[in-house]
Design a protein that fits this description.
By secondary structure, this protein is α/β, with parallel strands linked by helices. It has 15 helices and 16 strands. The protein binds adenosine-5'-diphosphate and magnesium ion.
Length: about 425
């Protein structure tokens, strides 16, 4: 299948050409014809499958006809970063169309957004909190809306945005085309789709299972040795771009700082940062000025960075689905990626759940030469200093080693693990996009 078969306006085709997209991805091939035909669509496909262009391209095609200077298409995204990313795709694919788009989210000047709106736009990419503010002030009207896209619907649900989505829906014309994209389809999203979409076509690409090009490995370790082991792993493996996940904002920040202290080009992405710093972290990671990004699930979900060689789960995710979301970021487009997960004794049940989803056992790995029996420091801080200083210059890289039975040579057991903090309530984030974890 080729993009030609959609018969896009040549100005849109030029944008596709600029982005060097050769052929549509499977989700694009299946979704675009339905959207062009005016149908409502539910698109379920994992992260990295090209869902953005699947709605942006037919949206541009529709907007090429009809009036300019009024808001005709609205895209709702769960986080500011995702809104910016979508905006980037619209600007790139739509650069020859003359269509204008704006992003509306909190944390940046309200007035600047109003100025932009006054100059005339056809597309808005928004986070819910700020959109509701604009609607409340009458600075945005949805009266002429023809198309509504709910992107990353499952994440919006996780963040507690459902009531806000309903509020928005009530202010849009009933005669609109609605598209809903999600990596997963839990029942609540199904219910939302029933409310918001009319006679939708469902397109589901693959199971929600990670790309097969990813190598998965788990590293059993005592909780207090996670940081030393991570540092040894970073020195050992041949990493290009590494995305590290932690369970909390605080841990992301602390680990990011720790890695910087140790001389790594590292930064963190979490909801406590100002919008500028979040964008700087993300841009720096994309362009390679940072080699390592430490992030929480919500901060990083849906974010596309194409050159990630390794995903390291410093903390085990909450759910098997979160695991597939995380590692969906490596091994894209047949690039082989590695997914490393540090696990403690209390993660056993989650490991089994992930293995069920993957349909395969996760490889247990041991790092040869690592002192798995190093004692916990007396002050058992969240990030205890490593028991010994890591060595930076090493002539011979260490090799990873695994035993057939999958257990560490010496048990990675610590009396301190029992009270280790578990990730908090996924729904605790509140309804503002400011409060991402
Ligand atoms: P999703 O929303 O499904 O997570 P994205 O829309 O962010 O995925 O796309 C993932 C990556 O794939 C992006 O880097 C995007 O530029 C790239 N991409 C999308 N469509 C194509 C295509 N047809 N050909 C090549 N690359 C594509
Ligand atoms: Mg997406």
């Amino acid at each position: 299948m080729s993009f030609d078969s959609f018969a896009f306006n040549p100005r849109i085709t030029a944008g596709i050409h600029d982005l060097k997209y050769q052929d549509p991805t499977p989700v694009q091939a299946q979704v675009i014809p339905h959207v062009l035909a005016g149908r409502d669509v539910i698109g379920i496909a994992q992260t990295g499958t090209g869902k953005t262009a699947a709605f942006v391209l037919p949206m541009l095609q529709r907007l090429m006809q009809g009036p300019r200077g009024r808001l005709r298409a609205l895209i709702v995204a769960p986080t500011r970063e995702l809104a910016e990313q979508i905006q980037g795709v619209i600007e790139a694919l739509g650069q020859h169309t003359g269509l204008r788009s704006v992003t509306l989210y909190g944390g940046v000047s309200f007035n600047a957004q109003i100025q932009r709106l006054r100059r005339g736009i056809e597309i808005a990419v928004v986070c819910l909190g700020r959109l509701l503010d604009h609607l409340g002030q009458g600075t945005v009207s949805l009266d002429h809306l023809e198309m509504l896209v709910l992107d990353e619907a499952d994440q919006m649900f996780d963040m507690g945005f459902l009531p806000d989505i309903r509020r928005i829906l009530r202010q849009t014309p009933a005669r609109r085309q609605t598209l809903l994209f999600s990596a997963t389809m839990p029942n609540d999203i199904r219910a939302l789709a029933d409310e918001a979409l009319r006679n939708p076509v469902s397109v589901q690409i693959g199971r929600v299972a990670p790309a097969t090009t990813v190598n998965h490995a788990i590293y059993p370790v005592a909780p207090h040795l996670k940081t030393p082991l991570l540092i040894e792993l970073l020195q050992t493996i041949d990493t290009e771009s590494v995305l590290i996940f932690t369970s909390t904002k605080h841990r992301a920040k602390r680990l990011g700082e720790k890695l910087v202290q140790l001389g790594y080009r590292a930064t963190s992405l979490q909801g406590n940062l100002s919008q500028n710093r979040r964008q700087a972290a993300l841009d720096g990671f994309r362009d390679g000025s940072y080699q390592i990004l430490v992030a929480t699930d919500i901060a990083a979900r849906g974010i596309d960075v194409s050159s990630i060689s390794h995903v390291i789960n410093y903390d085990m995710p909450n759910t098997a689905e979160a695991y597939t979301h995380r590692i969906g970021r490596t091994g894209r487009a047949a690039r082989t990626g590695d997914a490393l997960t540090l696990v403690t004794n209390e993660d056993a049940a989650m490991i089994r759940a992930i293995e069920r989803v993957l349909g395969a056992a996760l490889k247990r790995e041991l790092l040869a030469g690592f002192d798995y029996n190093a004692p916990a420091p007396i002050r058992d801080a969240e990030f205890a200093r490593p028991p010994r200083e890591p060595q930076y210059r090493r002539n011979e890289p260490r090799r990873r080693e695994s035993r057939p039975d999958g257990t560490p040579a010496r048990p990675a057991h610590s009396p301190h693990h029992a009270g280790a903090a578990r990730p908090g309530n996924r729904r605790a984030g509140g309804r503002s996009e400011e409060r991402i974890r």
